Structures
1.
Amino acid sequence: MEIDPFIFRLSIFILSIFVGYYVVWSVTPSLHTPLMSVTNAISSVIIVGAIIAALATNVESIFTSSSIFGYLAITLAAINIFGGFLVTQRMLAMYKKKKKDK
Amino acid sequence: MISANLSAIFYLISGVLFILALRGLSSPETSRQGNLFGIIGMIIAITVTFLSVGNFSHGFVYIFIFLLLGGAVGAFIAFKIPMTAMPELVAGFHSLVGLAAVFVAISAFINPAAFNLGTPGEIKLASLIEMSIGAAVGAITFSGSVIAFLKLQGIMSGAPITFKGQHLLNASILVSIVVLTYFLCATQSSNLFWVLIAVSFLIGFLLIIPIGGADMPVVISMLNSYSGWAAAGIGFTLENTALIITGALVGSSGAILSYIMCKGMNRSFFNVILGGFGATEQSSQKQGKEQRPVKSGNADDAAFLMKNASSVIIVPGYGMAVAQAQHALREMVDTLKKNDIKVSYAIHPVAGRMPGHMNVLLAEANVPYDEVFELEEINNDFANADVAFVIGANDVTNPVAKTDPQSPIYGMPVLDVEKCKSVLFVKRSLSPGYAGIDNDLFYKENTLMLFADAKKMTEDITKNL
């Protein structure tokens, strides 16, 4: 009997939770704010679903009820992707070590 | 057009890059590289999606327009936002992820064929369940984050909003979401789908209004976690590995942060979520001992104490963020260092309005991160320090947490500020902090209260040094 592909995805999901668990515990507390903004940015990878939704139209009509929701989701996710990564970059650039004693 | 297998491999690669992005945050040195991995992962995921759809018709142009439109808005916000507003920004971003998840779920429901999920009215059962979970959690994330944003921004009062039968109402709405999902799967009715989304928006709103301002670190972390689970739900619907991996990572990340925040307050997660902490009961208890003597001083006294110290520990809190005093503080510390005084910073896990809030503000003011310490690292040093400078913090320094089992904050880990030879406490008045209880520290022999705005006082001290 073949295994349902759902089981494979579930396995990936469960294992990723464990990976996330260990990786996040190793994040230094002083970087918890950048952690939140970067997780924010990467969770916007949901944009892949939005792109599929937007492109799933025939030639005659680009804007159908389902593709409009796709375009809206693309815009929202894009705000998050650019905003999230850039603000993280901006924050991380501020974390500096003590300068060597002059 | 590339094959489904090849694109799946690329999605896996981008998932791995996202893991490395989080891994990079284990130290500030590797963090910038980590962020770069995250960006590359995102570019791969988006490019592969374009290639796998392979439909380069006019729709493609529109996607670029919307992508750039959103991107421009996002970039603008990212460059303009002041660091003190970071909690609001993160809450706002969470709401967008939530709403995007809802939109993707809606369009999958309307046009399931585009996602290979069946036809309208005959969507595969598993997909329908995944879609409903994604939509419901996304909607909760959206409305919850909007409320959190409004509270943090001060548009809505940070005070908990409670009413009779609140918990019963919330519980019955949560049950109704499960029931609705069941009937949605049985009937495939689009009306039920819309009702499900509407009810989820409502519960997100109701869940966050009873939670007060200082509990926001828990709320933001929790919503961070929700946005991850919503993404994972959609990931299952779309059968997309990158989305499943990311959802799981973000979900567990937010959950861990919530746990750390709850532990920092010695409260259970449910205690925070049920809300209304310190709102009513405690305020009446402590009225008996209002008139205790306090020593108050001015900038001159404070400067004198610090000049004669050999080590100073600074304890920043939310009040520093409100007064935007981090730059003034850094200038004061520079002057102290010139006088060969050892200065370090002590950060309580729940100081501020989000995890790591104080660290970002100090970093913005050019404070080197190796002078900034967490509670466990520095707590023993207070006994050897000459001066503790408490600026904008309150409950996290209250010794009552260690001595009085009756106190609502008993058992909460606190900074041992009272062990210092002398304590300087910058505060605008004697009013109690968020927990609604008096801080015993105000009345200690070795405490000098500095009643002023945090920024102004810090500047005055610098002048007097």
2.
Amino acid sequence: MMHTHDTNAVPLPDRLNEDWRFGRPHVHARELAEILEHAQAAELRGVDLPSGVQLTPCAAEALPSIGSEALMRQALQIGPGQCLRIADGSQLREAISLHSEVHGGQVQQLRVIVGAGARLHLIEEHEYSEESMLVCLRRYELMPGATLRLEQRELGSGNTRAFCISSCICAENARFCSLSTHQDLAWARHECTLELTAPGAEALLLSANRLRSEQCLDMRNRQLHSSPGCKSRLLCKNTLTDRATAIFGGNIRVQPHAHDTDAYLSNLNLQLSPHATVHSLPMLEILADRVRCSHGSATAPVDAEQLFYLQSRGIPLAEARRTLEEAFLADVRLHFEQF
Amino acid sequence: MSLVIKNLHACVRGGQEILCGVDLDVPTGEVHAIMGPNGSGKSTLSKVLCGHPDYEVTAGSVELNGQDLLAMPPDARSRAGLFLAFQYPVEVPGVSNANFLRAALKARLPEGEELDAVAYYKRLRKVMNELGMDPKFSSRAVNEGFSGGEKKRNEVLQMLMLEPLCAILDETDSGLDVDALRIVSQGVNAMRSSFRSFLVITHYKRLLDYIVPDVVHVFHQGRIERTGGRDLVDYIEEHGFDFLKKEDA
Amino acid sequence: MSSTTPAIPPTDARGDFSFPEKHAFDAGYGLTEATIDYICDAKGEPDWLRDFRKRALAKFRDMPQPLHWAPQEIAALDFDQIRYYLAQGTPARKNWDDVPDDVKRTFERLGVPEQERAFLAGVDAQYDSETAYKNMREELAKKGVIFVNPTEGLSAYESIFRPWFGKVIPVGDNKYAALNHAAFSGGSFIYVPKGVKLAQPLQAYFRINSESMGQFERTLIIADEGAELMYMEGCTAPKYDTATLHSGVVELVALPGAKIQYVTVQNWATNVYNLVIQRGLAMRDAEIRWIDCNIGSGVTMKYPAVILQGERARGEVVSISIARDGQLQDTGARMIHAASGTTSNIVAKSISIGHGRASYRGEVRVQPGATGCRNHTECDALLLHAESRTDTYPAITVHGDSAAVQHEASVSQVDEEMLFYMQQRGLTRAQAMSLAVNGFINDLVNEFPMEYSVELRRLIDMEMEDSIG
């Protein structure tokens, strides 16, 4: 639900917006709106695009967001977007890389269409220069039988910020897997709506993030099952040191008549600092029976027994902690590779 | 040169005293067995020696080859030459056996020096082969999803790789079938040498048929109650630990 | 007690009767300063309380409905169509024979006195706004146990009552807290002195008899150091055409080492808005358990909370909800870990039948500086029909690196193979379903006192007969 500020023409998410719970919208939304006023459209560069792949300018289009509709509408008005189209049946062996460098305040719009039966491994990489901010709107459309393996890497540096709204729509028997990582961003908000619209569609949403210093990562995900017989999985893992904050919002929504849904979401946080904070909001909204839905959320420090075991073999404390931190995130990558 | 424990007192952090004045001297080259009824504090002794954070030492000293173990954190104790084969080896998801051992070996090298990876893997495979372990184990996460016997074998693998000066085997025989017991014992026996000592903690005689101790101690109510030779093992096998109760009375 | 006497009305039908109203006091519809003056005059309350109520009324009017997160159904509540105070005008009777006949018949139909005679340590029955009958065994009184209504509590025991009144749930906590502070009447005030452990539960019944009646009972329970008690409440109302509102406030204070168990079995008629605030404060080494069962009402919003204020305090919520056609059970739990070494546990199970909707809403929070805290939360939902709905809305906040907080939730349905197996053995589908549903909540039902659990099972049987058989 949207609440309007009297003082501003742009309706910003405020404290009463449940999709921004714990997200300090009163701090971030206003800044975002200011940045959007001066932002430039950013372009993605495709590296050695093979045949059957086109990257063309395309008109902006609205897409579902989680609590930031107004901001998104404003972002859509800045510059044209791009569309990456993979022809039906294309089987691309090599991964396609889309790389862009972010300077100042930029807005990027990307639409990816994976044709029927096509297969694509896409790597999107944003490299941020100091003090830069990116607002990124992305829409992925998977036609029947399409497969998309997607890596989203946000490579920040110092005081950089990212605001990404993604949506992914999967048709019959489409398979989608994404792995998002956030590195060295002072603040990042990541909204992702996944919609499974026809039987046999399957998705795996993965994210692994190491948060340190005062960084804040605010992730919101929605797994929307609007058709029967679909499967979705989500695994979001964070490790936190220093004064970092991780916010995770996840929602499995099973629409009426979407029977035989199989959905799961899991948010796991490893707390490595007495000053770090975790907020976890794993939600379920189930409007149909004959479903298998569950979720889990766990936040815990490093396992003392594991730590002692490593130490008992001579591994120094700091390294033992680092080893366990890496191990905690390691399986996320593995899931991606196995998809 | 030896493991020397003097008047060691320890309690569960903020709780009950479990070790009540342990005196023990294990000279290098010797194998000592510690036997005792359940709950006598045998396993606590092994954990306290390695510096487990759940326990607090309230009095006493422990030296390994003249180094004050109690002043060191657990990892430094390990690098000083102390090894514990855990009664319940810990699962460490996400860390492969090979990487784990490599990190442990690397921690023993001087700062900045790198481990010879080729030589390391070669040696790892050789030792695994000796222990009858499938080479695939090296890429599996430490102890994760291992059976009880596999875990115990993995402990012995680590011991052979890390070559400690003093090794404590805490109920290493539990969960092992006869074949595994023989292989594990062979591994331990192959390590016996004039510069290494062993402390074998066990409830049963079985393991001591394979790893023959030089000295046998009986642990009871947090301290060593009696010390003797191999014949003490047979006495306990025959009469159990009841003689300890009679002494109480 | 006689095994044939149900502790709670098994269906709406049992509570669905009413007697003609003949109230000596009736504050009319709507809540204004004049209503509050009327209540204060009728109850002979001191001026500080009158001011207190009026300040609360101002807050209530200022505060918006919490529609940004709450179920939208509460938007339909019209506070001007509620009657805020009705009373017979006679003080609570200590002897059952003195209770007016119609009130007595009501409670007899609900089975109150039999239980009291046979089993319970004390009973406090509330009829519309005020306590109609209460009794407490003499031995309890001798031990210094106080069990009175809040009006009597604040006049006769002000030095114990007032320091804690409105402290666990402050007036500005939310709109309904303010409403209750402004309009409260009836409820219980219990004080159990240091070290006194009550072997038998104390019990209260709440009943709305009159149409459009709002019931705003107020309960404050203080267990002094090392004291232990169990308190049980049951609620019913007849079905009227216009909605009625039950908006109680329950505050528990468990001083160091004390234990409080609070059991609620709610079977309001389906046009009752049951919007209740229950919160406990657990000091060092104290324990508070909420055992909560929601069967009735049209809309229930209730999230029993424990503020773990002292070191090593423990909190637990055990919750069962059953949502049938037209019902919304929005229930859950809150655990605030404000001190080190505190532990909490939440187990919530819900069953959605037909178009019913059951939601779990919860909050677990580990405050900065609180070390070594533990929470485990488990929510399981069972959906019986294609149109049934269930939701889970937890919010977990963990500061620091020493807490272990775990939340699990799952949604399932009755296994068809299992039903088939039972049917093959000769059970009807309804019987099989009933067994399966009972099995689903079996471990939690055992947490309830015996006569409640027997009744709960019977209720599920009847429900399965109706919806399947």
